[in-house]
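Risk register update: the risk of archive-format incompatibility is retired. Evidence:
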Amino acid sequence: MKRRTLGSKGPSVSAVGLGCMGMSEFYGSGDDEESIATIQRALDLGMDFLDTADVYGLGRNEELVGRAIRGRRSEVFLATKFGIVREAAGPLRGVNGKPEYVRSCCEASLRRLGVDVIDLYYQHRVDPATPIEETVGAMARLVAEGKVRHLGLSEAGPATLRRAQAVHPITALQTEYSLWTRDPEDGVLATCRELGIGFVAYSPLGRGFLTGEIRRPEDFAETDSRRMHPRFQGENFQRNLDLVGRIRELAAAKRVKPSQLAIGWVLAQGGDIVPIPGTKRRSYLEENARALDIELSAEDLRRIAEAAPKGIAAGTRYPAPMMQWLNH
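Archived output:
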């Protein structure tokens, strides 16, 4: 397994990580046995960077990851998040970055994961009602107490990154980045590189759309949250399907899967970027891991850029209520 360093002075992690969210919620029904087998297969492959959050499955995903890594903790670089607040029934209530909330969330995550320390602890979304200095200050105290090793932010803007970095070193920023979501190129990536912060790309497969496996809205289960996302609705769906068709053609020319081409493109955007495609099946995990073997030439990248220029995706990347929490 190839490895990359998170930031200029950060830890070494597998060059491709594993997003665990869909194992417990959002993308249809799950199979805990297969999900645990997928996480353990990732570790067998040397894919040690596992990503979860307290909000995924309202804590169930952390419990699942905890069961999967029991007895193998030393093989794992474990990342989780706090900050998104939901009701017990599931609906989003908002975000919370208050210091007392930071501590209570961390201690709850440690219990659910069954570990003594979290390797990378992210603020899942920036709380505009709480100064970032207060939130990161509380996170820094968790580092001093040995409960957390490294700090991260998710979907934070350049100004917030600078203010946070002034309080405590930020090891990684996690933000959506893929062939159909290029927002980080508008200042965020440059700021990370200036400050020595690693970049973790979530949804590098466009929530599964760039795999080429989704052909019609009916392919989603009734419980799949993607039905509510603008990019998967109405005319947007067909326009985005046309984009995927072009990616499929380029992948076929290189004799690779569309998913592998999409992950390979993210990897090619810089050695400081670590994509964390999510899956709940071993077969897709192994396909994703093989993306590391793809070499994209300058001509390949030119053709991809021509087929999928910046801003090509139709529709916003989240439903309207969730867009307000991005890039703060």
